[in-house]
Write a structure and sequence with these properties.
single chain, about 55% helix, elongated
């Protein structure tokens, strides 16, 4: 801020890493639920894994930037997995079932990366999924 204008607004941080705060236990728990709820969606065939992160994102929109950022990241990963599942299903159909094992790739990615994300957010770190199409920014 300059001395000439006392009403000048400081620039808003654009990345989660630029924010100067430590997430509290409630924030970490909500972020943990956002990441693990996607893995729980596997029990329903993997098609509703995006609902948990979406609900947490909508509930926490004005509460905590940490929870919002982690819920967005989890939601983006769920959307990426759904798109990958559709592509792999089409490839399996085109190959007359020869590429059937590809259908399990999104499931394995979901379980492995949900556990890694849960361990990271439990410690208050901001987790970013690899191989993720970030539609929500």
């Amino acid at each position: 801020m300059s001395d000439s204008n006392p009403y000048e607004v400081p620039p808003h941080p654009t990345r989660l890493e630029d924010l100067e705060f430590e997430p509290n236990a409630d924030d970490r728990n909500l972020a943990l639920i956002a990441h693990l709820s996607g893995a729980a969606g596997i029990l329903a065939g993997g098609l509703i894994g995006f609902l948990g992160p979406l609900i947490i994102y909508l509930m926490s929109k004005e509460r905590s930037p940490y929870v919002v950022g982690q819920a967005k990241e989890a939601l983006n990963f769920q959307i990426t997995l759904i798109l990958a599942g559709v592509v792999f299903a089409l490839l399996t159909a085109v190959s007359c079932g020869f590429l059937f094992p590809l259908l399990f790739v999104p499931v394995v990615f979901q379980v492995v990366f949900a556990i890694i994300a849960a361990l990271a957010v439990r410690d208050g770190e901001a987790y970013r999924y690899p191989f993720c199409v970030r539609l929500l920014r």
